[in-house]
Amino acid sequence: MNLATHYKCDDCHATFSLDKPALLCEACGGLLEIGYDLGPADPRRITDRAAARRDLGLWRWSDLLPLPRGAEPLYLGEGDTPLMPTRRLGRHVGLPNLLIKNDTLMPTGSFKDRGFSVAVGFARALDVKQAFTYSSGNAGASFAAYAARAGIEATVLVEDVANESKIAAISLSGARVLRLRYRSSLEIFAGVSALSEAGFYCFVNFINPVRHEGMKTYAYEICEALGWRAPDVMVHPVGTGGGLYGAWKGFRELRELGLIDRLPKMVGVQPAASAPLVRAFAEGKPVAGRHGDANKTVAQSIAGDAPIQGGSRVLRAVYESGGRVVAVDDNDLFEAMRLLGEEGVLAEPSAAASTAALLRARAQGWVSESDTVVSVVTGGALKQPSALAQAARPPAGTVQADPAELLRIFREGLV
């Protein structure tokens, strides 16, 4: 069973068949969304099938994903990451019902694998042979891995400030890497749009209408783990915002199917140095303009002075859900990395942003002590080794490897 039926334009509402690759609307250039016919669906059948196919990870939800009938899923082990109760962290921030969705355990080490598994699998089924994306690093590594598996020739446009570890991961999977010099994110998006309009198949969030479909599986996994109940609040780091928007779409589909009876508040998090969506939200605007300096934060993966298409979809999800977009500074990020480490979760700075936002959430009043809150951790610490070293506490000291000396130190409680 596959309930995906068509592409639909956000702006002019034109619809198009799913039997060919598509990016922006042919009629007006607007963003496309994939539509589903959920009316005749049997929700119990969907959940039973998903429960019986746990070996397929996020693809056990294929009824609600846009893979053409008969096509093989592109699967590297993505999905079904732990929804972990917290111990110290929940007490520290005053949220006893705080849960961590740990997407550092995805195949390439970040949440991007949700989107690329579905989007690249969809493109392979429609015989796409060459494609590109733009990335600060994590998306490029994920795209390169899934494209290699799918036999798609991949090119990744990488920010010139991207760290070498991420660039190496992209190249290791065989993708061609081009560094980008630019003054604003707007220049990057203009170039990406020009390539897309010229017929080069693109995997950039939202320009590609499929990537955020994979992010819907956040909602499915979380609500299933909570006994088919939505959390009160979901907090997610935001760069382009595909993770937050995709999850919001997933929650709405679950409510339409009758599997949950309410929706969570969606909270996006950006670095204070580069927070165009935060400013737009504060001003009540539906789109965000250029704002901030992406080079003045350690949160490389979510740093950008302007969002794609003004961040309209992300802001819409925030407004519709009664959520918000909040800013965190680098000191908050380092503290959050340490707190997550004490929960056994090693996060890069951008991935710790959702936790950093919660450090002041109770004081700011946008969460209550009784709320069930899901904080998404999107990428592993080894994605950004230099920041890991900055956040970590120094060693207790250096001692001689001598049994007597070690016994003395331990007995005196010096460690």
Report the end-to-end length measured between terminal Cα atoms. 58 Å
Largest beta-sheet details: 6 strands, mixed
At CATH level 2, the architecture of the domain at 83-109 and 211-391 is 3-Layer(aba) Sandwich
Number of strands: 12
Structural class: alpha/beta
Mean pLDDT: 94
**Strand order across the biggest sheet?**
4-5-12-9-10-11
- CATH structural class of the domain at 83-109 and 211-391: Alpha Beta
Helices, by number, come to 16
CATH topology of the domain at 83-109 and 211-391: Rossmann fold
Family: Belongs to the threonine synthase family.
Enzyme class: lyase
Protein name: Threonine synthase
Cofactor: pyridoxal 5'-phosphate
Produce the secondary structure layout.
Elements lengths: L3 E6 L5 E2 L15 E5 L6 H10 L30 E3 L2 H6 L4 E5 L9 H14 L4 E6 L2 H13 L2 E7 L4 H9 L3 E5 L4 H13 L13 H5 L1 H9 L7 E5 L4 H15 L8 E7 L4 H7 L29 H10 L2 E5 L1 H12 L11 H6 L2 H4 L8 E5 L7 H7 L11 H9 L4
Parallel strand pairs: 5-12, 6-7, 7-8, 9-10, 9-12, 10-11
Antiparallel strand pairs: 1-2, 1-3, 4-5
Protein name: Threonine synthase
InterPro entries: Ser/Thr_Dehydratase, Thr_synthase-like, TrpB-like_PALP, TrpB-like_PALP_sf
Organism: Nonomuraea maheshkhaliensis
